[in-house]
Amino acid sequence: MRIALTRSSAAGLGLRWLWITPIVLLAALIAGTAIGETPIPVDTILKVLANQLLGADYAVDRIDAGIIWNYRLSRAVVAACCGTSLALAGVVLQALLRNPLADPYLMGISAGASTGAVAVAVAGLGAGALSLSLGAFVGALLAFGIVVMLAHAANSGVGGGRGVQAAGAIILAGIAGSQLFNALTAFIITKSASAEQARGIMFWLMGNLSGVRWADVTLAVPAALFGLLVCLWHRRSLDAFTFGADSAASMGIAVRPVRGMLIISMALVTAVMVSIVGAIGFVGLVIPHAMRFIVGSQHTRLVPATALAGAVFLIGSDILSRILVSGQVLPIGVITSLIGAPAFALILVRGKRH
Amino acid sequence: MQLSAEQLTWAVHGTPLLVDVNLTVASGQTFGLVGPNGSGKTSLLRLLAGLNKPKAGQVLIGNQPLHTLKQRAIAQSIALVEQQAETTDRITVREVVALGRTPFLSALQPWSDQNEAIVTQALLDVDMQHMANRLWHTLSGGERQRVHIGRALAQQPKVLLLDEPTNHLDIRHQLSILKLVKQLPITVIISLHDLNHAMECDHIGVMDGGRLVDAGPPKGVLTAFRLRQTFGVYADIFTDPVDNSQVMRFRSAL
């Protein structure tokens, strides 16, 4: 995922560290494939990869090959894509809205996805013709659309069109839209779900990589790459928002189209990820902040660093969710918060000392 | 480059903030904008910078109407220093000034040595080069203001708009910023509260209730009558024997 980048003006941390990103990502993917209830040696993984990708003909145990290729590798790749996308969406929303609490689900996406999923799985919308993922995806986009319309109406209501007001309107509209869809979800569950269904939905909402197969990879990888490219392309525009939307405009950024395009792109990518694995929390909120502490807030460095950290963090969380309790897979959202919160506290404290 | 406003009108929620403002600032001129609180100085500067579209009338840069230009093209000619622009980001002084190069960079263009040199010069101009690696949140209000001006200078604008840039500065830096601004070979429009500082400008415009009520050379504009009428103060005007400049002494509010 390495992209040739320009040198930043800032002294201090340059961009020379970028060459390690593909290596770290590869190492994380291999770790995600090797570690599990049945540990698999790295050389076996490499042989399977060579067989599958390069058409080699190494002798590998059939069951091992199946676990590696069909189960763990696809899962690790989707985890990486999901981590990258959510973390980048967090970077973009925090930068554009000038709000440290902004996260990928701010725009009603997770709330809409859960309503969509519940509508399909519990209320039986589509009479079995729709998949849970598709329901979630449609729900996410629907909620996002409503939030955008609400934000637009609120913004023209307050008038002035100043960037600060626009950001405030987006955040308020997001909260209102999320509440609406959460209430719809709760309504559908209480109306028609059995206890078993409700538990399944809860599990799905906290994030679940168990059902991931290669078909999901072909969706997740392009979406994540698209998100990454959009962020890299607009890294200077994102920097220009440092002092708010007006300041960005005075430095030549066409605020409305650029902000609209970035938010819609991130919403789409987030909706894809949520529809595959559910609403994994914490990554999109905290990885960007952690990376700002480490590499600074210039997006030429922040975007690649966040993309990598998000991927590695989610692969790591997935590994932990599989091995922490033997015989049981914990929801990955539980792990991201349990591990992430103390880790973030540590970064905050260390950052303060510097 | 000449900047002019033709019959500019601007309102928010039906409240008129600017009414029929006509203004021409000649190329290379330093134009001081004065007026009491809420007289429309900031609104006028925002319209001149292309941040808001006028309800009626137009802004011309050279002979070109501003509304026909893209935001990026405007930013390549006009730089604005806002009154209050804050951030919580961990960003260094040098990085802030480097933001000024944004209108000249595209996504695929690398950061060049020329950009680096322009940023260094801008830091020198505002006397901040010794703090280039300091983080934004460690700076005082006055230092932040100087960095913002440095950022605007890094835009290498043909027109520089400054909204009360001397507000938080100590007297030494107030004077040095004014001197710097006056020396710049570009067109400058600067809103000021200190009327004695405004006397240093080539021309002055007086805003009152959203209207530009007078404009011209300082001595002809800032008269005892004007100070009473627009600013609501009794003032005496002296001639300083040292350099024959005109000095105002404010006695009391009306």
Automatic annotation (TrEMBL), chain A:
A single GO molecular function term of this UniProt record: transmembrane transporter activity
Residue intervals passing through the bilayer: 17-36, 76-97, 109-127, 134-154, 166-190, 211-235, 261-290, 302-323, 329-349
Primary localisation category: membrane
Cellular location(s): Cell membrane
One term under GO cellular component: plasma membrane
Keyword Nucleotide-binding included in the entry's annotation: no
Keywords of this entry: Cell membrane, Membrane, Transmembrane, Transmembrane helix, Transport
Membrane topology: Multi-pass membrane protein
Family affiliation: Belongs to the binding-protein-dependent transport system permease family. FecCD subfamily.
PANTHER family assigned: ABC TRANSPORTER PERMEASE PROTEIN MJ0876-RELATED, FERRIC ENTEROBACTIN TRANSPORT SYSTEM PERMEASE PROTEIN
Protein known as: ABC transporter permease
From TrEMBL, chain B:
Domain ABC transporter: 3-234
Alphabetical list of SMART domains matching this protein: AAA
Signal peptide span: none
Keyword Transport among UniProt keywords: yes
Statement: the UniProt record of this protein carries the keyword Disulfide bond: no
Keyword vocabulary terms for this entry: ATP-binding, Nucleotide-binding, Transport
Matches recorded under SUPFAM superfamilies: P-loop containing nucleoside triphosphate hydrolases
InterPro entries in alphabetical order: AAA+_ATPase (IPR003593), ABC_transporter-like_ATP-bd (IPR003439), P-loop_NTPase (IPR027417)
Domain of life where this protein originates: Bacteria
Gene3D superfamilies according to UniProt: P-loop containing nucleotide triphosphate hydrolases
A GO term, aspect molecular function: ATP hydrolysis activity
Family in the record: Belongs to the ABC transporter superfamily.
Protein name listed in UniProt: Histidinol phosphatase
Organism: Vreelandella nigrificans
